[in-house]
Specification:
heterodimer; A: 312 residues; mainly alpha; MetI-like fold; 14 helices; B: 334 residues; alpha+beta; Rossmann fold; OB fold (Dihydrolipoamide Acetyltransferase, E2P); 6-stranded mixed beta sheet; 5-stranded antiparallel beta sheet; 19 strands; globular
Amino acid sequence: MSQRTLPRLLQSPAVLLLLVWMLVPLGMTLYFSFIRYVLNSLRRPEWTSPSLSNWRGLGNYEFVLNSKDFWFAVQNSIFIVCSILFATVILGILIAVLINKTFPGQGIVRVLLISPFFVMPAVNAVLWINMILDPVLGLNGLAVGGINSLVEGLRDAPLVGWFFSMWPEFEPISFRATQTSAYAVIMMVTWQWTPFAVLIFMTSLQSEDQQQKEAAILDGASTWSQFRFLTLPHLGRPIAIVVMIQAIFHLSLYAEIEIVSRGNGNKNLPYLIGEFANNNIGAASATGIFAVILANIVAIFLLRMIGKTLME
Amino acid sequence: MGRIVLDKVSKKFGDVEVIPPLDLTIEDGEFAVFVGPSGCGKSTLLRMIAGLEDLTSGDIEIDGENVTQVPPSKRGLAMVFQSYALYPHMSVRKNIAFPLRMEGMPQAEIDKKVEAAAESLNLNDYLERKPAALSGGQRQRVAIGRAIVRNPSGFLFDEPLSNLDAALRVGMRLEISEMHERMQTTMIYVTHDQVEAMTMADKIVVLRAGVIEQVGSPLDLYRAPRNKFVAGFIGSPKMNFIEGEEAAKHGAHTIGVRPEHIEVSASSGAWKGVVSVSEHLGSDSFFHVHDTGLAETITVRAGGEVGFRHGDTIHLTPRDDVIHKFDSSGLRFE
């Protein structure tokens, strides 16, 4: 045996297991995506069991590409992921810088800040859509109602009454509507994932070299310049990590979309797969392959970006 | 210009007074070294001069102007840190240019100044590298370059050589001394290494627990230390202190004899002892002598060719003219 054979032999069970773990589902998805396969069909009962005799070629792919929701789902997936990334990174940096200073009660504040991350996604969605964003019973409805009654009261006030009587009555926004449901999802996921960004950025800020800051102070750098030229470059790597991990997680959002609007005006690829999978497994599998391709494109971009920051 | 005056400067951290009120004047163009054991407040004092630490009381003047409330960057001082404190994401060029960029200097002028500083520090070949790709000595040079380009009225060094290996340290020591000769700018240098203090300083300030024990030129401190602490701190190897009967013969509570002021002989001498360890450096030999009945160990320096070994009997004779006498409170008297 050569020197390399034994280690490779010892590694092989684990590698094989992982390979099987990955290749079997991928292979099955590929197989299903090329055949006609539905869960229930009274007209064509032979399609209800997977078989090569039901070969459809690229027909499923064509069907998915021509379905009205596909391109919308692709765009919407990217829109949701990018919006959440943008918001969590900016909020995360701001909050991390803010709580990096020592202040009384910082232990409790830090625990409270992290806690949204431990809420289950479905619970998070139910809480937000019912208690905060609901146009009647939620904070949204109560706040708008409060403003309206305040303006109502001020209309009769002396001196300023004429000004307020020009104001219209405000309408609360319904976040289950077609136009707004994506924003509801972005808001609730941002709330849940900002703590993750804060946690990572905070650890990184604590490892920042204080002597560098002092040198910068002596060099005449303002607080903003210190942040811009020292802290931000120092955070480059953690930002890349946060973006990569979150992108992978948010491409597969499902519970929030289901609970907010059941896909009304707001679908992503996993949700579309779910819809197809109600009956048409072939189309769902084809969509799954598209999702894999999209995830790989995103991953290549992200790996490039991270590689670049790691090189610097 | 760069005359720095500390007037009753003091510092408290909470209730702990690390520096009791202290007066000190550093003349323009002087190379002053703050030396003392670790924790003596020498770095704190330097940081107070730089403006990185607030004063609890007292005033700092630079060139006659009270700068106690002036922010660090406006004091006209540049500092070189122990960890170099280079900006890791910037190239050497950008590191050196950073203070000028913060001043808002035009780019053409910045380039000229950076090139000139790099030239004088032999950094031209490394200008586009990141600090991580440099050796310790090169990083130190970049830190000095960043200080030089600001054209400060004074340089502050906070143990700048302690992260370098021994050979490099000697080289950088010479370079900093040469830089001082060339620029004739005020420099304050903090170290715990008395060799650095002796070789570089015009004026040594010996500190203990935030209190100035003595201020003077290296040779003044060597010849006439004010007390036992300074006598023990300056000079290498350390001065031997002898108490009791032998000291009483000289009318003192304690006498101090430097290792280099003792004659050795195999046959006869004032004191007799047994060599426990002998260190041969080639140019010199150091003998640690036990069983003299005077002190636990007497250290002696002799020529490189003197060849006592472990266990040999040795006779010692101190040179009478250079015996230091101390009273019971540790102060030196003639």
